[in-house]
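Record format v2
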Amino acid sequence: MNLSRKWLNAFVEDADITQISDKAFDEAMTLSGSKVEVTTAPGEEIRNVVVGKVVEIRRHENSDHMWICQLDIGKEAPVQIVTGAQNVKLGDVVPVAKHNSYLPGGVHITKGKLRGEKSEGMLCSLSELGLDIHDFPGAFEDGIFILSDDPELKDKLVPGEDVRPLLGLDDHVVEFEITPNRPDCLSVIGLAREVAATFDKPLKLHTPVVQELGKEELSSLLQVRVDAPELCPRYSSRMVRNVRIAPSPQWMRERLRMSGVRPINNIVDITNYVMLEYGQPMHAFDYRYVKGGKIIVRKAEDGETLTTLDGTVRKLTKDMLVIADETRAVGLAGIMGGENSEIVEDTVDVVFESANFDGTCIRRGALALGMRTEASAKFEKGLDPMNTVPALERACELVEMLGAGEVLPGMIDVENHSYEPYSLALRPEKINELLGTEIDVDTMCDILRKIGFGIDGETVTVPSWRGDVRHYSDLAEEVARFYGYNNLPTTLMRGETTRGGYTQEQLVENRLGTLCSGFGFDEILTYSFISPDYYDKIRWAADDPRRESFRILNPLGEDTSIMRTTTLPSMLEILSHNFNYRNRNVRLYELGRYYLPGGEDGLAQEKRCLSLGAYDETMDFYTLKGCICAILDDLRIGDVRFTACADNPSYHPGRCAYVFSGDTCLGVFGQIHPLVAQNYDMDTELYCAELSVEALFAVRGAQSEYVALPKYPAVMRDLALVCDESVTVGALEDCIKGASKSLLREIELFDIYRGPGIAEGKKSVAFSLILRADDRSLTAEEVDAEMATVLAALSEKLDAVLR
Amino acid sequence: MKEMLQKLREEFGVAIAQVQDAAELDSLRVKYLGKKGELTAILKQMGKLSAEERPVIGQLANQVRAEMDERITACSASLAEKELESRLKRETLDVTVPGKTPVIGHRHPINITVDEIKEIFIGMGFQVIDGPEIELASYNFDRLNAEEGHPSRDWSDTFYFDEDSRVMLRSQTSPMQVRAMESMDLPIRIVAPGRVYRKDEVDATHSPMFHQIEGMVIDKGITMADLKGTLNEVMKQLYGKDTVTRFRPHHFPFTEPSCEMDVQCHKCGGVGCPTCKGEGWIELLGAGMIHPKVLEMSGIDSEVYTGWAFGMGVERLAMRKFKIPDLRLIFENDVRFLEQF
């Protein structure tokens, strides 16, 4: 909402308000709840432009189109200015940009010579002053702005004076951010009320007076019928005959322009003026085109069309509300009028509409048609039904004031609402309890009275325009904002102490992040929604049940339309981005959610995944596996095993493994399938892991307890075995562990060899074994016996023999 | 003999001064003190001396021997020291050759910011909770007093999963207020960070997914003064003890009274500069006293209990903290970006 300070001053005439600086004004208003975005001064850019009278004019000798003018600018001697414009005559009064003057857009005017003749400035056109033909309807559009041709300006012209006050360019415009609970502040009067209360000065309201000079009976000419009463709580209407369409006066045009509304003609300007002043959208119809003299407020029919004032053909639906005559729609209620009943040059009779429409209906209609207008923006917030009549009266008063026509006596006022003033108890002690203050009752009452509340003993009556106030906490806010939020005390909470902190799950998650950082992985954050074709990119079969995803019905685009059921494609996207930028040694992790159908209340099961992804020379299968082992070790997860996974379509069939703790699958990891890498335009080996955070949490080990340090020395034996290629290291380890239950403490692979000395189809696998007993030093014989047992088992079960 | 000893002593003195290394020193030692050495040779002639001379010469001989021993030991030590020095010199490294740095990964700037705020609240007795992102509209809107018809419920603003607008992507972390009220015992002090979603096209300051932190306190006798006091304290911990804040009236459906909190621009001290867009203040968060209707809808007696809540956007905070100019960088996850934090 843009507020002209000059217009505001008509309602708050106190010098403390009219003289206050923009900065102080803006701050005071912001702190009392009307947030100021910015204040602008439209004439600010104009400097050193004055009124000048042409006292001599002659042709330029060296030019076929230029004129040399002598201008009286209030100095003893006139100044000479050369102009190329052809509309200047002797005696004209014009805006003169003197030497060293500034015009909108940062244009700097200095003196100079034009074909040998000195020119000490410039004569200005409308557009050079940032104005247009709507601001001064009688002016030349393509020539110098002849001030003395304007009937309203011609008697106020004093050579040498600043042109800005004359042209209304001395105003300041305050842009407010109005919260949706305060539609009443979408008006000059509403804001004036806030201003008056903020500065504790009187608000000067005006009650419109209509003389009703028309002769006919309104009811004989016009009837109003509301067929959709639930969507139209009130419809007030009056009629004006013998209208004389003309430009509206300068003061009205100025106020409209400062409010961001372009002046058109007196009748249209009046509707806009009243909308700005009262916050009540108005509409004017040409009576000629209201067939049968009947206005019907009804729902549109599906497929019905209406050409709106902007010339667009609108296709309507049955949820929309229209203003119609007996035959057709003549306007989209609360949004825009119809072209078929527009006020035009030869309009003679006008019907004014001042109505109240259902906010949601208007908002949805405007949204569906993609045409949010000034009027619909107001209606959608829910307006005060008690405001239609005063606004209508004001419009008719302005018609008479402007001599724009004859207002017929009487008014049609269809009311489908049952407004009763809302009252509630003040409860000052509760207000103080809520705010933490000790504000006395009188102060509270004073504040409430200033903003239009009625006080009767302990009872507060809420004004009709404050539908947002229904509870003592609402009153508390009103009191607090004029008492000053920054004057409220600041205290620290008392009461029962609470224990702050993380849940166990959060602690594990934090730990996982720390570990991944420790392994050199950078954390990433990716979108939770993905494109359905991401599942294709990771080679999931078309009928893979994991494709069953939460689908957003109104996504921004297809590529963010479903909630991911896996974090893998998100990771691959980011790897791909980094690969494209030739970033090296990329290691990434995300603690991301994925969303599976089948949660409670029709929601998702939101699962957490520790997703790892990496490429480049520092990464291979075993490095990634090592990182995973370190994580499992840190979480004290026991009974860990890795099993080959050849059937995950996203991974290399020979380089992928599941990781288990006991029977719980913790996740999958390995090299990404080259075809998947290709889908992401990467011709390198990619390694990824997907570990379930829930599973890791579930199988994490208990806190460790101290185990006595060994008292007796350990014995180390190396064991180099030869076995079939198909025998896995894991199988060998399991076999060794199984055979030496009591003495084996540690087993470590240190070599795998294939080549000369080892038969084709065989491999040599070498382990270091550490053996120890807790109660004695082992003898060589004991160790030999144990090793013999181990070797026997290896030979028997796996056909593995000592090399 | 006495002269011989004296002469020997002098010779030794000259010889040892010229010793260069351990081998020379050793041959010197053999020459003078060895079994066939010169001193030994002289001492062998002791028997020829008279009874009076013998103790005198004997003493002198012992003295010469002791002296020689001592000088040999000293020389040996100094040689060893020299030897060490020269070895260390040979071992000198070029300290400007790069070190072998263990690679440490980086936490995402958004989470660095979230962590910092969480820790401050934990220190004040707040529990960290989280909840679903795919949420019921009843939690996201109705139970927060944003009734049917509220503009933020529009399909143009919020992502929905069903035609009835029942299941949605939460547009704020505020439904966590309701979930906490439902599941926790009073008094409650929680913070709930998380992802939220709004139908905004991606640009330098918008993203359809971003992060918020919600906070809430419910107890008997909680006041707006407490809200101010607590949030001021948080800001002091976040931005330093001289941080100046201000509270402005605002509107949220689920708080009453409602406010927004600004911090005075640290760059210009409130005068107005490009950082604060000339306003002197930077908007940080929205807050307010929990609306009695919201408490009542969750079965909490608003005549007995009061509370306050706040919500703040993390991205804006992180962007200011790390001077990140464009929101898109945050979700692009380029390692050259990530490794700066």
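The mean pLDDT of chain A is 94.
The domain at 218-415 of chain A is CATH 3.50.40.10 (Phenylalanyl-tRNA Synthetase; Chain B, domain 3).
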